[in-house]
Each structure stands twice: as structure tokens, then as C-alpha cells.
Amino acid sequence: MRRWASNVTLSHLSKLFRQTFSLSLGVMLIYRQNLIYFLFFESLFIFSHFLSFSIGLDMAGGSIGGWSRSELYLLLSINTFSHLIFISFFIAPIFNLSDHIWNGKLDYALMKPLPGPLAIYFTNEFIVSNLPNLLVAGGLLIHFMLENQLASQASTWGLVTMMVILGLCVRVALATFMMVPAFFSERLTDGEGSFWAVSGLARYPTSLFPRAMEYIVTYIIPLGMMAAMPSAILLEKDHSATLIFSVVMSVIFSALAYASLLWGLRNYKSVNAGI
Amino acid sequence: MNPTLTSLWSAGRFYGQCIAVELTYRAGLIQVFFAETIAIFGVCLFWLEAASGATSTFGYGASTLIAYFLIISLQEFTLVNRVGYHLSTEIRMGKMSASLVRPVPYLLLQVARALAISTTRIILMVPVVFAAIYLLPQLIAEPLADFSDRWFMYVLALALGIFMDIVAKMCLGMLAFSMTQTWGPELLFISAYSTAAGILYPVDLLPSFWLKVNQLLPFYYMQGFPALVFCGRLSGAEFWLEFLQGLIVLVCAVFVAIFMWRRGQNKYEAVGI
């Protein structure tokens, strides 16, 4: 029977985070060339998305769906920044879940005196090699904030920070939903591919979608919170009422994802059960 | 029996076995397919909006754009064959040692497995393709009006793309002879592929200089080239010229693969034997 420690404090979590970070850093220093590869990979990936937008904007004569070039680039930079935080700190624990379920490593993770989701999180490494790219993405975000004359007020930065955090929560929640089926079927373990496909919608303004789809990605599966909603609010293209409702739905979506993970863990039978 | 025929027969049986295994994972494949359909829907909507307000669309109407991204999505789904991953894993884990002592050429089995994975995905997609063409005839009628005249060109272009993909990824996998981790080059390949293959934008919209550069790389032939043929953007003499160019690129890629394989064989020290 697992016992979860009831006295997991913030200082414990902080210590665990520092420990995992330093271990990940140690691994990264052994495979130093990966730092160069990740830098080129993500930079080229970011470039490819900006290139596709640029070609589309050239075709459209400089604006698409009421969004100008600099506004679309701002949306893309917010999406990129959120994406890079996700792949630096969350990609390993979430997408390794199916392998760990089927090779038994999850058993060892769950023996730790931590709640299940935290045990899973701190049993995996951080992709520290992506941190330089996170700096690049941060620079792009600041650049396009300045270009759209949005960087002058502290309240703007506060709003951006809050929405990036919420967007990250939605991203983590979506990835969790895609991976939870691995607890129930060995045949449904390609959640990562599904996640990357669906989360690709986040880089487009939701106003480009048909009405029904716009409602779904804003209020039901709030993909819009990853980048489109923050950009629209910053650029005053949308109402604060929409933001408030979207924030509430993002919190609910994240809570449901967490609940689904707990449900999967409750149904998990150790790979060594009965031996 | 002729050893070449024996090898081909064994590879064919292995191909069938791999299809049977892959079909047991059909639920997962269908899950990914629907997710990728959603993704390509988003890409399509962006480009439709771009084309709707454009003064010059470079020949891309709404139906051509939909056809382009529809076929890109289907091709992308088909080209996932994990050949690079399998090859690099088997080299690193020593499993290649056991495979090398079989009388069937090892790389032939890798190609057979890659083709089996692609075939499984084609089998799953055929009902969807027919449904799309049946349900969406008005949306993609214009680019498909004369498809009966060029279906053979499309099949050739798609075959070129599949083999180009397999050879390029095998080259990536063979880096495992020299590197303990091949993530880095694999990730670079993915990002270069995203930039150059035309999956995020119609590839012939690149400025002409960069398009010519792109046509010297394998990525163009994996996705963009077959998609352009499907949409009727390439036909006749222009198609044959680019097809020939693609064959030359493929032959060069094959030579690179053979060089890497032979070099790797000289370096390879069997694990566990």
C-alpha cells in the first residue's frame, strides 16, 4: 500500500526541484553536443513557423483575418515561449509515462514518499539543453511586445506572466489527457503524436476558425489560452469577459487533467503484481 | 534456390509479419490520425484566410490549398516509419549482431519493416481518402478535375518520396555507429524537414532561389513534390525534369547510406558476442 507523505512542503519541493535540475545539468554536460543540436533544432523549428507565417502574410498582402504581421508574430512568440517552458520542464515526465508504465519504472517512482503525480514528475529529467532556446524565445517575446508597443506598463507584464502560466497549465493538461490512456491500454501509447498535432492549433488566432470551433478551442479545450487569447487581450482584440471565462475554463480543464491522472494512478496495477 | 530470391522471399514474409503486428496497434494509429487531421485543419484555415484576402494568390485558390494540405496530411501520416529509430536502437543495443548472422541482408529487413509500417497506415487511410473525396467533391473538385491524367505521376512521386524518406532516415540511424546518442541529428533532421518539406506552407511559394536550393535536398521530394503533383501544380515536362532530379538526389542518398553502412560495419563491435 503506498503511503503518501502528508507533510510535503514547499521547501521539500524546492529542494527536489534543485536536485532534479542539477542531475539533469550533469547529464547535459556529459552529452554537451546535444546543447548545440537542441539550439539548432529549436531555432530552425521556430524559424520554420515564422517562415510559414511570413509566406502567408506575403500572399495575403500583409494581414490575415485582421491580424497584422507584427501581431501574428507576437502570437507566435508567446506560443513559442510557452512551448519551450513545456519542453524544458514537463516533456520528459509526461511523455515517458507510457514507457515507465510498461517497463515497471513507474513502480519505483511510486515508492517515493510523494503524491503520485509529484513522484512521476521528479523521477524524470529536465531537458536543460533547451534552456538557451528558452532565452531566445524570451528575447523574441520581448522584441514583439516592444514592436507592438505593449511593454511600457508593469500591469501588461503581469497580465502576460499570468496568461503564459495558465497557457502552460493548459498545455500540460492537454499532454496529460493524451497520455492517461496508457494506463488502460498498451495499444494507446502514442499520445505524444496526438498532443503535438492538436497543440499545433495553438499558434493560430482563434478568430480564423469557424464559430463552433472557435468556441471549442476557447471555452471547452482552451487551446486559445496557450497563445491566441493572451495575444488578443494584449492587443485589445478581445473582451475581458472572454478572458475571465477562458481563465475559468483553463483552470477547470487543468483540474480535470489532474483528476484523470489520479484516476489512472488508482487503476494502475504494478507491473510486478503477483510476483 | 537463388539466394537473392530467397532473401526477397524472406523479406516479403517479414514485411507481412510486420503489417500483422502494426495492425494490432490500429487503435493508437487512428487516435494519432484524428489528431493530425485536426492539426491540418488549422493549417488549412490559416492558408484559406491568407488566400481569401490576397490580390495575387500565385495560382492557389481555396480548393487547391485544401487539396494540398489534405494530401500533405495523408502523406505525413504515411511516412512515419521509424526506420531511423529502429536502426539506431538495434545498433546501440547489440540486436544488430543477431540480425547480421541471418542469411537475409539486414538493411533489406529494415526497408521491409519501414514499408510495412507505411503500408499499415495506407490501409487505415484508404477509407478516409474515399470518404473525403466522396463527401468533399465540391471543395477539391478543381485540382482533381484532370487527376485521371496524372495519377501515374503521383504514384511515381509518392514512391520516390517514400524511398527518399527511408534512405534519409536510415542514414540518420547509421549515425549510431559513431554516436552514443542520435537524438541531436534526429531533431535537426525533423526541424530541417519542417522548414523545407512544404508541410507548413505550399513549397512552391518559396522564392525561386530557395526553391532551387530546396530541390537539391531530400526533404522536398518527401512531401512537397508529390503534393504539387497531386494538386496539378506540376505536370508534363516539368514533372519529369523534377522527377529525374529527385532520382539523382535519391541515388546520392543511397551512396551516402552505403558508405555509412560499410564504414559502420568496420567500426562495429558486436555487443554481447
Give a description of the structure.
The complex is a heterodimer of chains A (275) and B (273). With 275 residues, chain A is mainly alpha-helical. Helix content of chain A is 70%, strand content 1%. Chain A has helices spanning 10-30, 33-60, 69-89, 91-95, 97-103, 105-110, 116-122, 131-147, 154-179, 191-199, 211-220, 228-234, 240-267; strands at residues 63-64, 67-68. In chain A, strands 1-2 form a two-stranded antiparallel sheet. In chain A, strand 1 (63-64) and strand 2 (67-68) form a beta hairpin. The two termini of chain A are 16 Å apart. The model of chain A has no long low-confidence stretch (mean pLDDT 85). Chain B is mostly helical and 273 residues long. The two termini of chain B are 30 Å apart. Chains A and B meet through helix 2, strand 1 and helix 10 of A and helix 2 and helix 9 of B.
Brief overview:
The complex is a heterodimer of chains A (275) and B (273). With 275 residues, chain A is mainly alpha-helical. Helix content of chain A is 70%, strand content 1%.
List keywords for this structure.
heterodimer, A: mainly alpha, two-stranded antiparallel ribbon, 13 helices, globular, B: mainly alpha, 12 helices
Give the helices and strands, then pairings.
The complex is a heterodimer of chains A (275) and B (273).
Chain A: H1 10-30, H2 33-60, E1 63-64, E2 67-68, H3 69-89, H4 91-95, H5 97-103, H6 105-110, H7 116-122, H8 131-147, H9 154-179, H10 191-199, H11 211-220, H12 228-234, H13 240-267
Antiparallel strand pairs in A: 1-2
Helix pairs in contact in A: 2-3, 3-8, 3-9, 3-12, 9-10, 9-13
Chain B: H1 3-23, H2 26-52, H3 62-78, H4 83-93, H5 95-100, H6 106-135, H7 141-144, H8 147-174, H9 183-196, H10 208-214, H11 218-230, H12 236-267
